[in-house]
Structures are given as structure tokens and as C-alpha cells.
Amino acid sequence: MRISDVVEQLEQIAPPAYAQSWDNVGLLVGDALRPCRRVLLCVDLTRAVLAEARRRRAALVMAYHPLIFKPISRLTAAAAPIAYEAIRAGIAVYSVHTAFDVAPGGANDALADALGMGEKRSPLETRCAEGEFKLAVYLPPADLAAVAAAAFGAGAGRIGNYSECSFRYSGTGTFRGNQGTHPAVGEALKLEETSELCWETVCPRRRLAAVLAAIRAAHSYEEPAIDVMPLADAPPCAGLGRVGELTKPVGLAAMLQRIRRACGVKRVQLARPAGRRDSAMIRTLAVGAGSCGDLFRRAAAAKADLYITGELRHHDALAAVAAGLSVICVGHSNSERLTLGALAGRLRAEAPGLEVMQANEDSDPFVVV
Prior knowledge:
Layout: H1 3-13, E1 26-29, E2 38-42, H2 47-55, E3 60-63, H3 81-89, E4 92-95, H4 97-102, H5 107-114, E5 117-122, E6 125-126, E7 132-139, H6 144-153, E8 167-176, E9 191-204, H7 208-218, E10 225-231, E11 239-240, E12 242-251, H8 252-263, E13 269-271, E14 281-288, H9 296-301, E15 306-309, H10 314-322, E16 326-329, H11 334-337, H12 340-350, E17 355-358
Parallel strand pairs: 2-3, 2-17, 3-4, 14-15, 15-16
Antiparallel strand pairs: 1-4, 5-12, 6-11, 7-9, 7-10, 8-9, 12-14, 13-16
Helix pairs in contact: 1-12, 6-7
């Protein structure tokens, strides 16, 4: 297995097209062609985590937060120390960040699962996965197997957790080859009619050029007819945050215990409307992993009883309470760290030959003293 193979699996789990426009996700450091038997997962790649990666012989670190966020003009030990040390150690670095926040089954779903939200849920803010395409290829029936295999092998045909997805129907194609052509069916300078199939599949933007080249190479026609149609619709649960009913309503005191246990913290910040007691029942929960404080208005509009996020600005907390919404902040990275377990499980399932580890040295920079 190479690093590029792990990158491909990570991009299936958290498509880069879902990431915020200001974000920097993907392979940020390293050689994609190097072998990879072990990957270490963390939220923040610090010197301590990098030292752990070296001890545990990880070829790739999946750091939730981007190691390189803004453009840099020089890569020196002083200007970019962790990136510089990772390169010297031969360790690649990948970031999923907001792509994993948005993706179905990603960070926000993992947080919602841990806190008891039911399966019927929706994003607080939906996002479209721009960059997906639908391809329609017109071909003789004899070409179908070769063209499909070539397209799937180049990266087409993935819909969620399904692969080799396609649809086909039959029809009649017409063409006239002009001077100098060598048609696979019929003769040049003559109007021809032939039975053809229209074979359709989907393709991510990053694979489009490779898939089109593979289709043309496997197609028997001199000039294959291929329609390329952009798609913008996101899956039903693609977006930031989640809101839904709990599988079983619980009191605020019980939910506080659940949050502390799930996020591995002893204390949280709680803001609630005056008079709301610990015994108040929570039926509808909203969550936003990381820095999603600005989504509190959407949580209030969805009639959530409680909104849980990583961090929230002071005046937003006042506005949330005024709107009748209780909010809990657990710390930015504390709200994200528990989601690494879900990512690890999916990587192990998709790449059974890969050893997936979670960093022991990874922790939130803030402690309550």
C-alpha cells in the first residue's frame, strides 16, 4: 500500500469538494508514492505527536487541522518547524478538516451518535459537493465491459459507500465519417446507423481527466461521444452541524454526564435561559463540532433544546440564551477528537492491510485549572 492509496480512501470518506473555500485539506506534506503500512490520527500535529509518529513508525499522519493553513513563502526550521521536521523524518501529513465536518458519517455525525441523537437528523447548514460530474458514454455493446472496467479503474462510479455504479440503455446512433476517417463501423463518406448503448456513471472532478482518458483508450471508436454534465446536489446529510431528536429524552444533568464522558473532559461551559433547571428534559439536540458557534441561530430555529459545540463567542452565548436555547461549549478540539475513532474505523474497513493508530500525545492546548 502506498500513501496515495490511503489518500484515496480518505478522499472517499471526506471528499475535498466538501471543504470550505478558505480551508486547506488534502495531502499537505510528503510523497504520495512512498509505501505506507501505518497511519497515525490526531487533531493537531505538534512536536510531541510528531515524535510519537516517529516512535510508532507511521508513514502518514492524518492531522484533523491543517498543518499548513495559509500560504508560506519559505519552508525552513524557523518559518515552518513542524512541516520541516515532518519532511526530514519522511512522514507525510494529510488533513480532512472541514471536508470531514460536512461529510455524511463524518465529524458531526460521530458527535451526534456519541450523544444519543437518532438516525433521523439533518444538517444545520447544508453544503453542496461541487465538482461531481455525470458522464454519458455512447458505445457499441461489445465495448461495454472494457469501457466500464477502464472508467471504474480510473476512479469513476463511486456514490457514497457504493462502487461501480452505472446505468445503461439502448438506442440507435448515426454518423457520417468525413474524408480521412476510419470508422469502426461502416464506411467513410456514408451515413451509417448502428445499435449503441448509452452508459452513464459519475465521476469526481479530480478524477475527470484520468477517467475520460481511460474511456477513450478502451473505446473502439475514433471519436467517442461523451457527455460531461456537472452535478451540484449534496447527499441528504451533507452539511455543517446536525440536529435531530434523541433516541430517548434525558434531563440536562444526565446529558452533561454524557458529554463529559464522550469528550473526555471534566468540565464544560454551560449557558442556559434563566429558570431552566438541571431536570429540564432534552428532546431535540443540535451539535456543531469545532468552531460552529455561529450556527446557534439555526439550532434555535430548528427548535433544539440544547446546542453543543466547541466554542462560542460571548455575545453569541447571550443571544442564544435570549432565544431560549441552552448551549454547551466543550473546547474546540475536544469536540473533534472523539470523531477520530469513527474515522479510524472506516479506514480499517476500507483498507484492511493498513494499521490505523490514534495518537496518545494529542490533546487540547487548554486545560481548566
